[in-house]
Amino acid sequence: MDRASMKAHAKEMIEGKIFMLFAIAIIISAATSAIGMILGPFAGLMALVITGPITFAEAFIYLGVTKKSRMPRIEDCIVGFVGENFTHSFIGYLRYVVFTLLWSLLLIIPGIIKAISYSQMFYLMVDDKDLDPADAQAQSMALMEGHKQEYFILLLSFIPWYLLGILTLGIGFIWILPYVSTTLAEYHVRLVDGNKTYKKEAKAAVAEAKKNMTATEKELEKATKDMKKAAGEVGKTVKKKTNEVVANVAESIEKSAKEAKKQAKKDSK
């Protein structure tokens, strides 16, 4: 995918919208900080709840900018908290965090790869408000198949811009952050336009996963039955041996008692 044309398109689309995009970013940041200060020790839990809806809102805003050259509005900040958007974005973010962390437990590289695989989830949920988070995750993985390295290189290409933002004491980020976000949204648009079969691929992957899960469950059920059968056999053997031991002990006691009785009779004579 042509990075230069994507970035040129992004620069064109954010023209005249920079200060509104910056204002929205300030509002979101200020609201998040205020909530953190109010909740104190519970701020981390609240961050887990609101990050998904905020990410959804950002995807909504920048897809609108890149696809329709739409002027963002202040009320767009809360679009992720409205109706099903909140439920889907919260669950979607939870899935993103959990699955990325699980892969990161193996090594950092698998975690990064999976994070890139899931990078299109929120754009997809914005495109289709009825899309289930699990399906959005599967579709994102299908979309990013063969594009993960390309996306990673795109992210790396913004490093000089971030350095420039730091050198300007943060002032440059007023333009840099909207530019980066619009470029990433444009990448999503081109990715979808260039892959018309990703939904089928995602559906097939989900069906295969369910099939594999069913097979695993059957194996577990069989293993459980085998364990129960083995336990039953062990129980029978133990019971049989116990009965034999008890019978032998009883026989020995009875024999000893008879001999003692005979000896007592002899002694009495």
Describe the protein.
- There is one protein chain.
- It is built from eleven helices and no strands.
- It is an all-alpha fold.
- It has one domain.
- The model has no long low-confidence stretch (mean pLDDT 82).
Give a quick precis of the structure.
The protein is an all-alpha fold. It has 11 helices and no strands.
Distance between the termini: 116 Å
Low-confidence stretches: none
- What is the tally of helical segments? 11
Tell me the count of domains: 1
Mean pLDDT: 82
Shape: elongated
What level of helicity do the residues show? over 70%
Specify the structural class.
mainly alpha
Biggest pleated-sheet summary? none
Q: What's the SSE pattern?
A: HHHHHHHHHHH
Please state the CA-atom Rg, rounded to the nearest Å.
33 Å
Number of strands: 0
**Beta-strand percentage range:** under 5%
Q: Keywords, please?
A:
269 residues, mainly alpha, 81% helix
Chart the SSEs and their pairings.
Elements (H helix, E strand, L loop, with lengths): L2 H11 L4 H22 L3 H26 L15 H21 L3 H10 L3 H7 L5 H12 L3 H9 L2 H9 L5 H21 L4 H71 L1
